[in-house]
Specification:
Elements: E1 7-12, H1 19-29, E2 33-35, E3 38-40, E4 54-56, H2 59-67, E5 71-77, E6 80-85, H3 86-94, E7 98-102, H4 105-114, E8 120-126, H5 130-140, H6 145-159, E9 167-170, H7 174-189, H8 196-205
Parallel strand pairs: 1-7, 1-8, 2-7, 3-4, 8-9
Antiparallel strand pairs: 3-6, 5-6
């Protein structure tokens, strides 16, 4: 198979929008997708494996790597650092993979600031309406009323940044949303700039 250049695919969405279901569909149906593995300072939980779920480092090592510019984005959450390794993403892009990054709008902004624009594609998954999002959150029956209200507030804050993304998929009908998300991936793989390695050998046959 002829190889195209890969890219980082950022997918962001408020909690309850169906992002996990949609990204799992991409991973299961599209070739050459690598899920980004974050680096963290928190300890490994039972069943988590180094290099599969996270890269585990201590706080001093993480802070040194921040100073060295090793992260495309990073944040401190509840006393632990989390970051996206620049080398990991670059290696997969050059190998022709799509690197899937499940991050919020703040992380997406950092990624865009720290990568070449042609190597980043971003998608915002939106709910069809606020009330439908709340119904979905309540339907999961996993959160208290306080948590649900907090998630709704967070959703409003995240939704205000929808226009910072390249594409918007409204997840009203799940089957349609899957088609639309896959269509973005396929179209972006066929961009002229990513097809150089594929086209050059073909051009030589016409010389």
């Amino acid at each position: 198979m002829l190889q195209t250049r890969g890219f980082a695919l950022i997918v962001s969405a408020p909690s309850g929008t169906g992002k996990t279901t949609l990204t799992r569909h991409l991973m299961a149906t599209q070739p050459n997708i690598a899920l980004s593995v974050s680096t963290t300072t928190r300890g490994a939980r039972p069943g988590e494996e180094e290099g599969t779920h996270y890269f585990f480092v201590d706080k001093n090592r993480f802070e040194t790597r921040i100073e060295q510019g090793c992260f495309l984005e990073w944040a401190e959450v509840f006393g632990n650092y989390y970051g996206t390794d620049r080398g990991f993403v670059k290696e997969h892009i050059e190998a022709g993979h799509v690197v899937l990054l499940d991050i919020d709008w703040q992380g997406a902004r950092q990624i865009r600031d720290n990568m070449d624009a042609h190597d980043v594609v971003s998608i915002f998954i939106a709910p069809p309406a606020q009330d439908k999002l709340e119904i979905r959150l309540r339907g999961r029956k996993t959160d208290s009323e306080e948590v649900i209200q907090k998630r709704m507030q967070q959703a409003a804050a995240e939704f205000s940044h929808w226009d910072e993304f390249d594409y918007v998929v409204v997840n009203d009908d799940l089957a349609q949303a899957k088609v639309e998300l896959s269509a973005v991936l396929v179209a972006e793989r066929l961009r002229r700039g990513r097809m150089q390695a594929t086209i050059q050998p073909i051009l030589k046959t016409f010389a």
